Amino acid sequence: MRIGLLTEGGYPYLGGDATLWCDRLVRGLGQHEFDVYALGSSRSQEDEGWVALPPQVGRVRTAPLWAAEDDGVVYGRRARRRFAEHYGELAAVLGASGSPEAASTLEADRFGSALYGLAELARDEGGGLGGALRSESAVRALERACRAPGAQQTAREARVPDLLSVAAHLERALRPLSLDWYQDDDLGAVDLCHATSGGPAALPGLLARHFFGVPLLLTEYGVRLRTHYLAATDAPPAVRSLLAAFHGRLAAETYARATIVTPGNAHARRWQERCGADRAKLRTVHPGMDASPFAEVGESTDCADPDTLVWVGRVEPTKDLVSLLHAFAEIRKEEPKTRLRIIGAPAGPEGEAYLGHCRALAAQLFPDEAEGPHTVGDNPVSFAEIGGPELPTLADAYAAGGVTVLSSVVEGFPISLVEAMFCGRATVSTDVGAVVEVIGGTGLVVPPRNPRALAEACVALLRDPARRERLGAAARARALELFTVEQNTTAFHGIYLEIVARTPVRRVVVDETGEPLPFAVPAEAHVPGRWTGAPVRSTPTWATAQAHATTPEGAR
Questions:
Q1: Rounded distance, CA 49 to CA 66, Å?
Q2: Is the previous residue joined to 516 through a cis bond, with omega within 30 degrees of 0?
């Protein structure tokens, strides 16, 4: 089977968010062929190069989303009229839109027609869409939509700077419409498109389905629409309203056209259903994680310090380490021997500032306690990063204590919690995101932003070693059953076969007279190996050894 893997800011780049799981998926499904179509997020990411590609990757095509390229195509009068018609329809839908949940079928059809109309225009004219999206006529179309009768009140308040901001955002988001990927020997030749996220990454899959009937599989480990909502809080109300309408309509269109949608957890699944996804299409596939680095710690019964609490993750405000420190102050009153180890690197400048604040708070809450006038005090809270001589690996971090704590106020799929489970550690977590789904009944869960409840749960486990051991063993068994790479690749392999089995034949084989040949491509043609009597597809040029010659110098 030939899979078109669609990514944004991830695989095959070294620094992508989804690079690791995509690489594991491709390597775990060596019986399939993969063509990778990647949207780059920044120049620095492209300069870092690619990961080492396995032999089943036959072609990699990339396009930058971070730079607006001028293809030199200038629209004539007829093309400009077509653009004004389709973009005006798109703008009208955005200006009149309410919430995505309340979208009517008519609005969804108008949005889809406008979207595919713009793509058809770019295909017919050989490009030029980027320049049109940046033109004054695009801004004027947005203005007319915002001033039209029936427009949303917030849209009516849009001023010129707001319209320019929205137009620039739409131009960037719609850049995949004008790519040259939509040919018979590109996305038109794959058996299945697998989009690894919503938003721009799914647009090539929508167009492959529109132009060639290629089925689309959408995977969202983090719901793109939710991410947009969280990131747009600082924008003016008119900008927020118009962009929320666009991303909501795009998400609804993607969910409607996808054959199957695979959320990474029940939390993401609820968001998808709220945004218009058909429940019958949803299949939860948990992220696959490599359990082997944690095997030695998980199988060992020894503990470096049973009186130590461990927190592991990226240091940022959403992790709510302030509540954890206040909870630890309560814990020390009950169990004076307890220590807290905060292990992780700050996430960007905001994380650096937050880490400094947490260090100052720890020094204030726990002044150094010296045993005598000539000794140096020792703060019970320590901060460290993985990679030093004391904690060379991630597994060593979890092995440093008897209880692992997660104190987040915002969380998607809690990776650090699964790692602790692989290590056989009892956990105390806040009830956010997919935590309850992941932990099941193998750990203690408390409300977020509640230091007292967090402290009581930690004290309960610190005082009961037998309970800690039982919970840790149960957590490791659950993680090995549900969250490994093997279960992830097995699930996607089955979904690939199911989608192809349900998809009508798109390329009809004809004989010398031009008459169709029924059953010329039997079902077993999709199964690896050679079959007697079955026609063998000739090896396309992209599958030759020279196909990898396009790999940039940074690839390794």
A1: 16
A2: no
Is residue 414's pLDDT more than 50?
yes
- Checking 529-535 for CB contacts under 8 A at 24+ apart, the result is 535/509
Residue 541 has pLDDT above 70, yes or no: no
Torsion sign, CA atoms 3, 4, 7, 13: positive
Return the biggest CA–CA distance within the chain.
102
Q: Residue 83 is which amino acid? A: F
Report pTM.
Answer: 0.83
**Nearest 5 degrees, angle CA 74-CA 79-CA 80?**
80
In whole angstroms, give the CA distance from residue 126 to residue 366.
67
Judged by phi (left if over 0) then psi (alpha if -120 to 50, else beta), residue 440 lies in left
| Residues 51/45, Cβ–Cβ less than 8 Å | no
DSSP H helical ranges for 97-186 = 105-125, 129-133, 136-147, 153-156, 160-173
Amino acid 10: pLDDT: 85
DSSP helix/strand/coil, 342: strand
Question: Under DSSP, is residue 516 helix (H, G, I), strand (E, B) or coil?
Answer: strand
Q: First vs last Cα of the chain: how many Å apart?
A: 26
CA–CA dist 278, 297 (Å, integer): 42
DSSP three-state, residue 295: helix
d(CA 120, CA 207): 9
Kindly report the number of other CB atoms within 10 A of residue 68's CB atom.
14
**Placement of tokens 């629409």 in the chain:** 225
Residues in Cβ contact with 15 at an 8 Å cutoff, skipping those fewer than 6 apart: 44, 45, 48
